[in-house]
Structure formats: C-alpha cells, structure tokens
Amino acid sequence: MRELILATNPTVEGEATAHYLAELAQTAGVRVSRLAHGVPLGGELEYIDRGTLAHAFGSRLPLS
C-alpha cells in the first residue's frame, strides 16, 4: 500500500481515529492524506456552523 486516504467524520471520535490510523500508517512508511472538510460548494456562509468555518479557515490554500 502506497497511500492511505482517510475519510472520517469531523467529530472527536473521527479525529482520534484518523490520528491513530495515520500514526500507524506513517510508521510503516505509508503516505497518509484525508478528504477535505469545510464549506460545501454552493454553501451559504450564514448557515455554516462555527466549527466547520474554523476548519475551513485552518485548511485554506493559496489561490493560484
């Protein structure tokens, strides 16, 4: 296996599971990535909860 792509729920349990699996995979030399979380395409910002918005800001990428 060359890469492990994680798709856990954005909950405390999901985050803990993702970190646990990532640590195991990285120890074995496997590249680890995860699906993005954040504001959905076409989503209205006024309806986004604080946690989702904070995660979207924390995971922002440069515009190219």
TrEMBL record:
PANTHER family attached here? RECOMBINATION PROTEIN RECR
The protein in question is named Recombination protein RecR
Q: Which Pfam families match?
A: RecR_C, Toprim_4
The Gene Ontology biological process terms listed for this entry are: DNA recombination; DNA repair
Going by the UniProt record, its keywords in alphabetical order are:
DNA damage, DNA recombination, DNA repair, Metal-binding, Zinc, Zinc-finger
Q: Which organism is it from?
A: mine drainage metagenome
Presence of keyword Coiled coil? no
Domain Toprim, by residue range, is 1-40
* Matching InterPro entries: DNA_Rcmb_RecR, Rcmb_RecR, TOPRIM_dom
Q: Which GO terms describe its molecular function?
A: DNA binding; zinc ion binding
